[in-house]
Structure formats: structure tokens, C-alpha cells
Known about the structure:
By secondary structure, this protein is of the alpha/beta class. Helices cover 18% and strands 27% of the residues.
Amino acid sequence: xxxxxxxxxxxARPPMKPLDLALAELLxxxxxxxxxxxxxxxxxxxRVLAQDxxxxxxxxxxxxxxxxxxxxxxxxxxGADTLLPVSQRIPAGSSGHALAGASVARIFTGAxxxxxxxxxxxxxxxxxxxxxxxxxxxxxxGQWIRRRGEDVAAGSVVLQRGTRLSPAxxxxxxxxxxxxxxVAPRVRVALFSTGDELVMPxxxxxxxMKPGAIYNSNRFFLKALLQxxxxxxxxxxxxxxxxxxxxxxxxxxxxxxxxxxxxxxxSVGEEDHIKPAVQALGTLNLWQIAIKPGKxxxxxxxxxxxxxxxxxxPVSSFVTFLLLVRPFILQLxxxxxxxxxxxxxxxxxxxxxxxxxxxxxxxxxxxxxxLELFANQSSGVLTSAVWGDGLVDNPAGQTIAHGDTVxxxxxxxxxx
Length: 416
Ligand code: AMP
Ligand code: MG
């Protein structure tokens, strides 16, 4: 009699990797892309600087006035009735000459201080009279003077290689004479979503959606997140849940791209074809990362292209992008600041159930400066990421009670 075979044992699950370890391993693959490109400073916002910017001059180049008023020699003031004649006029853009004894110079904001003057009195504090001016209060030596080099000293590195350029840093680069900047090349990313249930908004009206169909939301935020990081995105759309189709898409994407980014299909279900497809074409490291949301995550290499597979659940996809893909892309550009700092804030909520994974809770800052929790923390509820101002980074095994200090990572630091 044939015996009833016992069910095959479930395959051993790989141990979950701590996030910090996964990130370190991931970053070890991210060799900075070359060559740098030269851009007009006007066009360099958000790009990563590929050179140290050394200043050839002091900024300001001369001691100058920070007010419209009068440049004076403090010792000339003998009291509120001292009459001081105006011996010269120095508008911004011109330079004066040595201040004649017992006189003042009419001076305007930004104009260089005339030699011999040691303070500026703002015009509001001067009385203009026949033959000169009178100053009611004793001028303080050095007042209203911006010192030569107080912003930038000649010979100093003003912006370091690896700086992500902001509007203010473009202004600073311009202030030392740089009209062009060497920046890291744009990361060329091929993006696609997997899932036969996915429908593009616009293709099918909400009323006509078939049971089981959902709109593709990941494609929208992933594309936007990539673009904010300065990537050039090739959007390959939706790839059906078939091995051949997945292999074809990956093969095509591995040409001319630095990174292939996918969402969905990285779990271990039999409709998850990403894993065998990447293995057929290159190498794959599949990681279960000990975070919630966002456990499944894959990294691999297909030819010269990096491959990253994100989970399909929208919040998991969003959070793993911010925590892992963002620093990876920044490192490809040689950025020297990858991970955002978290700040300590108090919780205005209870989180009584500890999880064995490190959690990233969607929270909002309230008017009391404390954090409120979005009620539904499910990895499918994208509303939480819109409602929230950021994430609470909650260590594994930790509960939270009202008033506890928690670590908060603002979205503002992750979405630029
Ligand atoms: P998967 O990782 O492919 O098993 O997908 C996990 C869950 O995320 C499923 O409920 C999918 O329907 C959903 N999902 C996958 N991709 C997307 C997407 N691009 N947009 C919205 N939901 C998605
Ligand atoms: Mg799927």
C-alpha cells in the first residue's frame, strides 16, 4: 500500500537582516559614477558637487558698511553737539579715499570703508544740519562694519566635493566667482512595476475596474522620488507576472542604465518572478530586512547595471526607497551625506505592542511640538505617508507611551 507522504518541510527562511547592516552592504556596491560633468551654476541645484570649491578671494573683499549712513572716526566725536562736515560720498560699487580729519563720509550699504574710518553711524541716528551732521549718541568702534573675509576667507574650501547643492550653495559658489561647477553625472534609472492586477489611472475608469484590479500607485511616487534625486528616469511601465516578460524587461533595462528599480514581485510567492529573472541574467542578493514596513528587498547586478527590487505594498515601497534606495543613489553621485539625522521628540501617542522588527511609524507633528500617530499603520495604506510629516524610527522590541522620547525622521529631510 502506498504510504501517505508527509508534506515537504517549508524551506528555511533566510534570517532577517538588520537595516544598518543591509544599508552598509548595499552602499558597498555603490561605486561613484564617472565622469563628472560641467554645468552652469544656474543649472546645478540638487546635483552633487564633484570638486572642492576653493575661494580665490575674501568675501567681502573689503571692510564695508552694513548700513546707509556715515563712516566716522570714533575719536572725532566729542559730544552730541560735535559738528562733523561730510568730506566725501561713497556709494556701493565705488571706493572712497582716506577720511579727512574731523569729518565723516556719506556711505551706503556695501560700500567699502574709507581708510581711517572705524565705525558707521546709521543715517537714522544722524541729524543733517548746515555744514555737516551731528550724532546724538557716541559711536561704538566697529559698529555697522562688515569685516573683510567674514563670510569667506581666501584659500578656504567653501563647498566640499560631495556636497548636495542647494539654492543657497549655488549663491555661495557664485559669490566666489564660479559660473560653472563640476557635478556628478545624473544616475540613469530604469523603472518598472510588476503585477497583473495593476492598471494605469486613465486607462480604466474607477467604475469599470475589474474585481482584484488596483491602480498603479508606486510608479508615480517612485518616479517622482527618483527625479527629486536628479535621476534620469526611463519609465518601462508595468511588466506582467510572467518569467519571460520579466527577463526581457530586465535584459533591455540593463543596457544604458546605472540602476534598474522595480516594485513588487520580490516576495517568495510563485507569482514573484523577479528573483529567478535576475538570477537568470546576473547575480542576486535577496534580503529580508528586519524593518516594518518593508521586509522584502532585493539587490543584484545585471551586467554593469545595479538592480534593486522593492516590495509591492505602497508604504513598504515608499519607506524602503527612502531608507535604502535614496542613500544608494546619493552614493552613486558621491554625496558625502547619505542618511538623514533623526531628532528627539516626544510622542503624543501610545504604541503598546512591540514588534520584533524595527518599525518606521508614520506620524505628524502637532502644534505642541509632539508627534501624533496615523491610526492605520498598514503597509498598504498610502494615506499615512501623505498625512504624516515623517517617520518615527522605533527600535525592535520597543513599546511607546505618551510622553516618551522617540527618534523622528522628518520627510522634509528625505524627500529632497
Ligand atoms: P507583491 O510584492 O507583488 O506581492 O505585492 C504586494 C502588494 O502590493 C499587493 O497587494 C499588490 O497588489 C500591491 N502592489 C504591488 N505593486 C503595486 C503598485 N505598483 N501600486 C500599488 N500597489 C501595488
Ligand atoms: Mg505582485
